[in-house]
Records
---
Amino acid sequence: DAQYTIELIRCGAMDVFTKPVPVETLHRLRNLVAMTQSLQQQRYATRGEGGARLVTSYLLRKERDAPDQMGLPLNILDKTEESAAASALNDVSVSVLLMQRETRKSHELPLLLRECGYTIGGIARSKNEVLRALGAKNAQYSLLIIEMGQESVPGVGADPRHAEFFSSAQAVLREMSLRQVLLPTIAVQEEKSTDSVVRTMRLGVVDAVLPPFTKPKFRALLRYVLKASDQRFLVEESKRLHIQQSSIGAAVGGRGDK
């Protein structure tokens, strides 16, 4: 089940294998085991990245320890009438930066988000457009949503444009870490295979929305919107991580000079 795969990755799983497990997958598992000693260092480096990964880690801890304190007030989430929900959302102005490829269906997700009451603060088609939007003066986005699109074209096979777009999404999240952009990031994708879901979650997103795409699913993303108190905590945590990483880098460099 794709949703269960998402939860496993959110809980900290490095990978997910489904039965029957082919031989090549067991070889992959053997390689993972061989890397055990370096995994702790990798995880430490990942925690030190900050950016979207820092936000994801923080939100997952909060979801576990204090779910009633997450996101916007629950009375907004409990609204059942579309007009009431949209009105409440407009009042708090939840602005979304959407990264997506331009396709014949690219208008559908912005339309659905607007129907849920979200404000589309910007639509970016490339890595540079996303980074430009995030770095703009007075940029105030509540969520970054990355629409991954289809991995293959019926009757044709793998779509090379998807691989290129996926690489761009990876680059965006890496750059967000370097720039310490503290923005909850959500993936939206049509592909529900285990491998695809694992690849997407490994980007560092806090959640992935899978088909069917419904209004309740997108309204539920309100729980990931950061409050002012969350932002203040994450800014301080980001500064602490930056100082920590700088100290480690200086220590490693010092040993290399000896």
---
Amino acid sequence: LHVGRHGRCCLMERDVHPELSQHSVCHQYAGDWHVRCCVLLGQNLDSSKVGALTVIMITNPQEMGRQMLAEDPGAVPPGVTEPTGAQSKRWVDQAEAKAASGDRLGAIQDLEQALTVEPNSLFVLRTLGSLLMDEGKHWEAKQRFQQLLDQQPEYLEGRILSAIASLKMGRLDEFQSETEKVLAIDPQQPDALRWRARVAFDNQLYAEAGQFYVRLVEAGCADADVLTALGVCLAQGGQWNMAAETFARVQVAHGG
């Protein structure tokens, strides 16, 4: 028996969200398991109700599940303090629903609430930072990514996101420094290579961009965009034959 997605009982293992599987009723409540069920369901500890509850649970778990699903899923039973993880997950669930409906600002507010409960959640920090960056709040996004990196300095995706936030604020030195840290750990990290190549290309630093595009090809990321940009870099450097061969490769491999 486990606490399910909204702090209620889940009778079947497969119904328990993997992230919440550790929150078994046994871990949260002491004493008899009948009593624990009644506490979760907001029942008075009347012996007849305990008996009826026990019979339904054992003989007809489907009916038990139906009754529970018919209740308000967001309500917390009287006298029961919702576990911290469940509180955070409630805010995250609401944020996901709002983001899916296009309410990004509402999603940001809910994730900020989740952080008040679990201030060190890597998932919440990353998601919140990404939403803030999508809304053009680059400084705020940078702060969230930095919080994430303070806990896990070698989280490469977080460092790349932090580098992008720096780039959006015009802090090119920070962007380059952070991507270099990523590439020092993983020299073939494709996102770091793509961003370095793109920024150099956009600034018409074709020799530098070409080096990063070559590394992308060597890393197995030779898509049409990479090869086309590499061809341009080669042509800008006067390497016409290699540029022609690269453009021909795009034609053959990608039909471009």
